[in-house]
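[09:14] KT: can someone run the structure on this one? pasting the chain below
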Amino acid sequence: MLRRLYDWTLSLAARKAAEWWLAVIAFIESSVFLVPADVLFLPMAIARPERAYRLALIATVASCLGGIAGYFLGYYAYEAFAKPVLELYGKLETFERLRASTSADAILLMLITSGLAHLPPIKVVTILSGAAKIDIWLFIASCVVARGARFYALAWLLRRYGEPIRDFIEKRLGLIAGAAAAVLIAAYFLIKYLM
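[09:31] RB: done, structure tokens below
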């Protein structure tokens, strides 16, 4: 099922309304959808490199708006809506552990790492942020920085290196983003405990 969903999402890149689909996928990915917007963003940016930054803007704005929707799901409708969504994806137990034991600083750090590397999945962190009642403005700023950095970095790489970088990105995106997230986590702990 997941492969069919992935293939369907990828097929949207060839449609006339591809930019609208990118916005829709980026929006729902941040709160309920399994397939990341990158699946649509990458082929669109390779097909039209002159539009890569425009696509990054669309993906960033839609993803942040979707993150805000996820935040409000967690804040206002955790029991009614968010809990069943998390249960559907098998993330409820992990979410409840995080919710019970995580500080606001750690949630914001997770928001940055999930925005950059999907670790943990962005939908879990946006809902967790709302359920934990993280300051909405700090949440939005973190979301804009993390998601914007991800999409604009991809746009820059695709514009600079074109088609040859596509295979590299698709195969190693998680590793690259994970390394960036590890650097951020290390910086967080250095600043928090050594300064």
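[09:33] KT: thanks! The chain has a mean pLDDT of 76.
[09:34] RB: yep, looked fine to me
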